[in-house]
Write a structure and sequence with these properties.
The protein is globular and about 65 Å long. A seven-stranded parallel beta sheet has the order 3-2-1-4-5-6-7, with helices on both faces. By secondary structure, the chain is of the alpha/beta class. The protein starts with a strand and ends with a helix. About 40% of the residues lie in helices and about 15% in strands. It folds into two domains: about 220 residues, 3-Layer(aba) Sandwich (Rossmann fold); about 160 residues, 3-Layer(aba) Sandwich (Rossmann fold).
């Protein structure tokens, strides 16, 4: 089967979980014997040579990658243009017609234009859409704790209503969490589509026989360093934890616009280590050598890749009780009924400190949580995920 996957970012411009999931799906489809090609974007200024890239990748020029560098007013103008980008519409329609694919799997389309679903309908191709965030409900794709009304204003409702009409009803729409599906159903999206909840795929990692603490207890933060990710809250909590448990380290792996602010917050504390960007092999090593992953996010998350990777590596998780995170970790999780970590009240440093101190003091409970996490992701390995997709494609 010939399959086109469309996502607004792909290597070498990948920078988040959605891009990692898209690449995982592509590799899984190829391994299963399908022919795959990709449509994505690149910055206007980049001259990219891709003769050795496999599978075939079409890069369209877009300002999306550097959008945050534009003034807010120009970003608003860009969003309006992007929704009705007729140039991108004809380019992508031409590619799809020339490639003669059987099915199109769309992901995040901001930067490529919201007329793409129309092009797919006009060509009468099978269409599966994978939702990663609330990007069609609010153009930022973000909803922070305490700012839930951002999606309830008249402007946001008009935007969501327009997106709902542009996307119409693909054959199948996949949501990695019930939380995200409910947000879209509240806004009357995808009425005629088959809607399913299918947690994102993850490859199981080999794990050490024991996660017993030797030396310092290592908490790991892995991800983008942005204000809405809550890293400053975690640094504040870690300093308080050290007052009772001096042998604690906080390992921070990632880059972002809030990096300097986080370093100022850490000050001269040598137990808080900033590693910067890490390769996949280095990330796997950090997951294998840490005792607990902490996700202090201040924004509503869908199905965070970093949590699935932690589960896969046998690492328990302390995370904010927000969005789809609660499903992954809580007792009523969508993958299994055992807890694979512990939740704290979003933005509450006192509760976060208590949960981190609890983790240090309950090594045997952490081991049980780690085992529960492995169980949760075992049935949603890449091979099983691809089989689910094949069944949905029909």
């Amino acid at each position: 089967m010939k399959i086109c996957l469309i996502n607004n970012l792909y290597k070498p411009y990948a920078r988040g979980g959605a891009e990692k999931i898209a690449e995982t799906i592509v590799n899984g489809l190829i391994k299963a014997g399908h022919e795959v090609f990709i449509i994505t974007t690149k910055p206007y200024s980049e001259k990219l040579q891709t003769p050795d890239f496999k599978p075939k990748i079409y890069y369209l020029n877009s300002r999306y990658y550097n959008l945050n560098k534009l003034p807010k007013f120009l970003r608003l103008v860009w969003h309006v243009w992007d929704m009705f980008d007729i140039v991108s519409y004809f380019k992508i329609k031409k590619i799809l017609r020339a490639e003669k694919c059987d099915v199109v799997i769309t992901n995040n389309l901001m930067g490529l234009g919201f007329l793409i679903p129309l092009a797919i309908r006009r060509l009468k191709l099978k269409h599966l859409h994978l939702v990663h965030d609330i990007q069609l409900i609010h153009p930022s794709g973000l909803m922070n704790f305490g700012q839930e009304n951002i999606i309830n204003g008249q402007w946001a409702r008009n935007y969501a209503g327009l997106c709902s009409q542009l996307f119409a009803s693909p054959k199948v729409v996949i949501f990695p969490s019930h939380w995200l599906m409910n947000r879209y159903l509240d806004r009357i999206f995808f009425i005629k589509s088959k809607r399913i909840v299918l947690p994102n795929p993850v490859a199981l990692m080999p794990i050490a026989e024991s996660k017993k603490t030797e030396g310092n207890f290592k908490f790991l933060y892995l991800g983008q360093i942005e204000k809405h990710k809550g890293l400053n809250l975690l640094i504040q909590a870690c300093k308080k934890v050290k007052e009772k448990f001096p042998r604690v380290e906080l390992i921070i792996a990632g880059v972002g616009s809030d990096l300097e602010s986080a370093k100022l917050k850490a000050g001269s504390d040598q137990s808080i280590k900033f590693l910067g960007w890490q390769s996949e092999a280095e990330v796997n090593r950090l997951l294998a050598t840490s005792q607990c992953l902490v996700m202090p996010t201040l924004c509503y998350e869908n199905c965070p890749t970093v949590i699935l990777e932690a589960f896969s590596a046998g690492l328990p998780v302390v995370a904010a009780d927000l969005g789809g995170i609660s499903e992954l970790i809580g007792e009523n999780a969508c993958l299994a009924d055992r807890q694979a970590g512990t939740l704290f009240r979003p933005g509450n440093v006192v509760d976060l400190v208590e949960k981190m101190q609890w983790a240090i003091s309950h090594e045997s409970d952490l081991a049980e949580m780690a085992a529960a996490g492995r169980t949760k992701v075992a049935s949603y390995n890449v091979e099983n995920y691809i089989k689910e997709l094949e069944g949905l494609i029909g």
